[in-house]
């Protein structure tokens, strides 16, 4: 057999092999997409100028989630509410945000529907400011940065046991803000609050976090002093 025919045979075999491999990977990709359900990533962005560090991307939209221009999962609301309107702001983590359900099926919107039917107010508005992964400190800052602009009559905090966890020190270090942001509230843009929240027990951690969210002076933990003491953070 001449070299020409041998080369032709090898080229044909190589072509068939490459096509077979391509078909294998294409079919494998289709099969994986059909059998393995993966949740699309949530629309987070870094917030280098905010103690919250991360937040939802304003204007993000997909089939089941829409983030408004102020960075929370809800419709657009004017800052000034109309007359005879009850306005409520809801803070929390993924449970309040409503991960996995439509906005109208979240507990805040269900409550809004119930209050609209039973209250004497002409309009009831409940703004869903829950953000997946937020702790009580981030929720408080979100309330001060955005929530207070809407002048709510009531604030609801969706509290879960892990919501008093401290912000991860590695997250702070990676942001390059660990020294300048010791998780203390900047009062008037200059003087930081001097008090440090003591978290010697689980109960004190929970109590201080709840008091902070309800408008008391923020006594945030100094991450630089975080230590492990019998399983609790001090």
What this model shows, in words?
The strands form four sheets. A three-stranded parallel β-sheet has the order 4-3-5, sandwiched between helices. It is 33% helix and 14% strand. It folds into two domains: 38 residues; 190 residues, no CATH class. With 234 residues, it is of the alpha/beta class. The C terminus is likely disordered. The protein is elongated and about 95 Å long. The chain contains six helices and nine strands; from the N terminus they run αβββααβαβαββαββ.
Task: Summarize, please.
33% of the residues lie in helices and 14% in strands. The chain is built from six helices and nine strands, in the order αβββααβαβαββαββ.
Number of helical regions: 6
Order of helices and strands: HEEEHHEHEHEEHEE
Largest beta sheet: strand ordering:
4-3-5
Query: From the helix content, strand content and strand pairing, which structural class follows?
Result: alpha/beta
Fill in the keyword field for this structure:
elongated; three-stranded parallel sheet; 234 residues; 6 helices; alpha/beta; disordered C terminus; two-stranded antiparallel sheet; 33% helix
